[in-house]
Inverse folding.
């Protein structure tokens, strides 16, 4: 059991009330209509940003493929012209060589047709994707501007809450200064585990933290422990401070 005077227990209870007030103010700030709208717009912006990045990546890939197709087409055309020049030069008299050359030219024409078909597909995809990327860029700029305006409106709406949070923050620091470090560390750790409520008043036989009644034996034990240090509720585990 952690030792604590009745005065320190009372200071802990007062500190708990301040922390509850701060928590309520923080909740109000997070729940401002402007904040909710801002959160929604930020989520939408994240999706648009991801889609824009993906589209840009696909567009870069298509651009690379288009350049590769154009280079290969140029090479195929150059090879075709060279082979046609050889065939019509009159220098090749062997029928076997001419047959092989005709076969090679046929293969080159087929390859050129395949490349041209794919190039047209890539150019069509690129045109559509460029339009989509442009629309995403505009949407991104639109959302960014809206988020900036919403953030300003949120900050203006939160001015009074922030001022109260500053005041209560100073009040908490003053209250915590009167509590020994080991007691304060125990309180903060318990508060983190108990949904923000580490200290509860004992009213009669009822723990105000869990609203359950203590048995006569538990009540006697709590009162006895409270004379020497921090007593805890057997049901919820919170620090119990008996009412004066």
């Amino acid at each position: 059991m952690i030792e604590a005077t009745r005065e320190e227990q009372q200071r802990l209870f007062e500190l708990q009330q301040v922390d509850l007030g701060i928590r309520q103010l923080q909740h109000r700030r997070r729940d401002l209509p402007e904040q909710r709208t801002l959160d929604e717009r930020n989520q939408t912006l994240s999706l648009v940003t991801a889609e824009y990045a993906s589209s840009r990546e696909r567009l870069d890939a298509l651009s690379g493929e288009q350049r590769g197709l154009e280079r290969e087409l140029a090479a195929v055309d150059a090879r075709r012209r060279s082979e046609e020049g050889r065939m019509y030069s009159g220098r090749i008299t062997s029928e076997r060589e001419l047959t092989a050359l005709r076969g090679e030219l046929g293969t080159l024409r087929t390859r050129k047709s395949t490349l041209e078909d794919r190039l047209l597909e890539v150019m069509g995809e690129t045109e559509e994707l460029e339009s989509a990327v442009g629309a995403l860029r505009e949407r991104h700029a639109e959302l960014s501007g809206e988020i900036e305006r919403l953030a300003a409106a949120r900050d203006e709406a939160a001015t009074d809450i922030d001022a109260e949070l500053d005041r209560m923050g100073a009040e908490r620091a003053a209250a915590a200064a009167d509590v020994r470090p080991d007691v304060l560390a125990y309180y903060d750790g318990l508060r983190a585990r108990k949904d923000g409520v580490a200290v509860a008043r004992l009213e009669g036989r009822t723990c105000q933290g869990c609203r359950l009644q203590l048995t006569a034996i538990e009540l006697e034990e709590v009162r006895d422990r409270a004379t020497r240090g921090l007593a805890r509720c057997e049901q919820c585990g919170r620090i119990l401070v008996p009412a004066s």
Observations:
- The first strand starts at residue 199 and ends at 203.
- Helices lie at 6-30, 33-88, 95-157, 159-177, 181-193, 216-226.
- The chain has a mean pLDDT of 92.
- The chain has six helices and four strands.
